[in-house]
## 1
Amino acid sequence: MTKKSFAVFGSLSCLIYMGVGSTQLAPQDDPMRLRMNVVLVQLNVAVTDSHGNYVTGLRPEDFSVVEDNIPQNVSTFDESHESGRGTMETARRGVDDKPKESGDTLASPAAKALESAIPKTTEASLFILFDTSNYMYRSFVFAQDAIADFIRSMDGSSKVAFYSYSRNLLRATALTPDSFQVINGVRSSVAGDDAALYNSLLLTVKDAAPLKGRKAIVVFSNGPDNASSVPPEDVAELAESTGTIIYILSTRQAQEDPASAAAFERVSKVSGGKAYFAKDWRQEKKAFASIREDLSHLYTLSYYPQANPNRGWRSIKVRLVGKDLQKYHIRTRDGYRLLPGAARSPDDSATADSEPDPN
């Protein structure tokens, strides 16, 4: 391996950084070896009010992005497909309803010009990762029903892939806009043996990494991981650095397995997602509805990092601009890890090879 190579399954200090750039398989065609050209950092941002309602209708100029205290320029901006339909509170309720005064930045021609000048990122990819281990035997059919209902509830603007895992990962259905094909993959899944969740989740994050646009993974788990060689911290940092959102729905209550529950919370939180714990089908249905609602109200923005001497972990702070927006809450990832020699500008690039999967 070259000096730019590193072990994904090794220490956290050796994990890769990937933005939204070009990623390709290495010449060896080993699916566990990736070569990345880092050119863009993408953020998925949820904005909510004090009651947890989603805030819609925000514009690029309403967001301030700072990386390591260095202001960044937003390059692309987009809302999820269903944002702005009026079903949730909008950020300018009580502001946009008033007559605009001369110089009002919320409706100024300069602000509108800025919004129209920034391209949108409309692509969206969703990976569903289903636990088919022996933990799932008792509720296998009910779990399939819940996942199928969730797929049917999607608005059709996203491509969906269905994966299942026990000791190994099975890529049952590749990304497709055809929900019927995905549901067939769900119905065709069969129960397996031990659960290697983190191994499988890491592989799924790697599949999502090279994709442009918004990308998310929904994990349906019925038990702890008892067969992985990968720690959850490795998965968390890789997901955070690649801008991949992870939602984890566990059918076991958190108090039944505190260690797994804590890991699920950490992995989902750092990626900008959420963890859910459902004891019955009603709570599962509610959790899936919450995930769908979250996905349909995200803002996606990206930027080319400004020159920065920090070659390791870079922190990201996203804030809302203007006193009328300070009352709202933001949820997104906190940063990413950059490899030595990675690009400082869109014209630079950095490559890294990951070690083959031990399985």
## 2
Amino acid sequence: MTNEELKQFKAAISITSVAQSLGISVSHGRFRCLFPQRHTHGDRTPSVSISEERGTFRCWVCDDVRGDVISLVQIVKDCSFVEALSWLMEQYPFLVPPSARKEMERLSQRTQPAAVGRQRPSVQGNALQNLSSPQSRPEPEMVRPPEPEEPPLVSEDEHKKIILSFLKRLSPVDNTPAAKWLARRRIYKPVWDKMLLRTITNYEEVNNSLKADFGEEVLKYVGLFNEKGHLRYYKHPLIFPYLDTKRRAFYFQSRAIDNTVVPKELNLRGTVPYPYNMSALDNKPGWVYLCEGVVDTLTFLGQKINAVGIPGVRSFKVEWLNLFKSKNVVLCLDHDEAGRSGMEYIGNLFTQAGIHNVILGEGMENLPTAMKEGEDINDWFGGKK
């Protein structure tokens, strides 16, 4: 398995789903540390954050409790890199490249079960060939999922109510800097209204009213506030709600409108529940365009083209395949190396699931109207950065 194949394999797996399969209770993108004895009160308030978008986890107290989905399996099962990867491949065989199956079978025959106190290898170069460089592991007697404890800080229903309450405090984008930013990209009011776009026009008011109503600890827990106790979206005031089929939003993405801000986008912590513009996946036969990002999706919607968006090249989850079962899919990720690689990978997933798919512009590369290298859909339609 090459580095690229390994990246694609990990990117297609929900780290939240893997954690739950390992017996870890995940709530709102957090779980209790696997080493509760290191924490005050046994880590009663979960200290480990999951980034579903990046496929990583991190404990904010224990510096050695962090990593990707393979690292998570290694820590919980106290095993080597190869054994953790083998376990994941057994769980998700339909994601494994054929060449990697043969290689893993060969390596598994040579690999003995994990011993107590084993050191795990570092991953450099080809992920399955560099298995000799050791890296110290946590104490094995401490490596186990925590015992079930008290209920989470807020329930799932309370979490949804808090997110809705946050969105209701925001302003429509009309006559704001966010509106000018959108208009430069040829995204106009009919689309703003349809997709319920919002913006933060008075940061202090939103910040303080949320804190007064819900408290700092709860707002950190649901992911609206940062570790310093402030609303996370000071530099990212444009809000894109992810509407469900009933046009409710319990998840959103935010966007900076100052081009110097890095990163350009922030997602609400926790699992991305479904692609952006879920209503396009209506179980009716037809075509749908799969875009990279919200802005490209909005661009297509402004052109009356049925489209959905994913947060990034590597954010498509296999759990979403069933949503596309009635559709023919046009893949239109960014016209660059990462986008082409992503389209090839996602296209293979659709093909294996029996979903017809094509790549936008394939066979038309030499036409004057074709997308240029480095362009995205919004660029292609004449949007201005």
